[in-house]
From TrEMBL:
Record protein name field: Retrotransposon hot spot (RHS) protein
Compositionally biased intervals (Basic and acidic residues): 16-26
Highest rank taxon of the organism: Eukaryota
Domain Retrotransposon hot spot protein N-terminal: 1-90
PANTHER family: HOT SPOT (RHS) PROTEIN, PUTATIVE-RELATED, PROTEIN KINASE DOMAIN-CONTAINING PROTEIN-RELATED
Residue ranges, annotated region (Disordered): 1-29
Species, as recorded: Trypanosoma cruzi
Alphabetized InterPro entries for the sequence: Crinkler_effector (IPR052980), RHS_C (IPR046836), RHS_N (IPR046835), Trypano_RHS (IPR006518)
Retrotransposon hot spot protein,C-terminal domain span: 95-318
Amino acid sequence: MDVREGEPPQSWRHRAVGDTFEKDDGVQQSGAARPRLLVLTSDKGWPYTWKEDESTRDCHVNCEVERVWQIVKGDLTAWFNSLPEDHFTPIPHALIGTPGIGKSKAAGSYLLYQLLHYDAEQLPMVVYFIADRKFLFDKTSKTVSTYMGDSSNESVVRSLSDRGMKGYIIYDVAEPDDEPSDDLPPRGWGMALVSPPLEGNYKEWVKRSGATEIDMNCPGESDVKAMCVWMRRHKPVREQAEYWQVVKGQMDEVGPIPRYIFDERKYDNWVQRCHKTVDEATSSVILQYTGLGRGGSWDRMKVFYWLARVVRVRGENSGSEFFFQFTGLCSPQK
């Protein structure tokens, strides 16, 4: 596995499968290897870190992150190819996945990148909501405005809609029960909500808006290895290999969750919380483990936050739905 600069000669291809998209492994040009990981670097960082004034410049894009964009892109294509008399409304989405896998850092940032590079005449505005901040990207004037405070700032988006301007919202649920207001998305706007599987963050909004879920898998082992190669690209090969073995050992215990396997302090805390959750589990809590699988909600089964991860599976109607799976270290033995 090596690092190359520039755009790859061939990226991932996805095909429609029922109501969703899946990676098409049958499409590959002869002699052109697909990338395992794309890295987008921004000198200014990405909005999900601006709240803490951090400077995380890299956005890791794997085929699962690209899949999210392909679904959104398909909606945009249908929207802008529709006739005015069709009164077509873009479909809102709720992007759901395990905390710490990169929904904000990777998928949210990559959506922002692609939306900002989308045709400015068709889609002149993009707004990124996170915590108490709203970042308004005006692609026509090439400016970014920051709004802070309560939900009254959402009136800015409504006013743009009332003036006939089209745009897209990325709503990153940074706090529990931080559900979007009834006014989002406004008329003529698309929207993607980013959240862990806590129904208090999105359930009512999904009902009101008619949104569809996009379930996002954790990165695969090869994806994580590619991240290690990138992060240690300037180090000797032996040091790269040693780093990968450390990360792989941690991944085998807590699962492929970048937030924890790349940060020793967070990893140690995660392991302690896993053991504590299992050791203190009562009979009634253990009964909650029977909810493991399809359906389930972390709102009702808090043990899942430390013990499980979300896995995307094919749904009954050719769509997709999420499935809870225990991480390796904390599979309950009681």
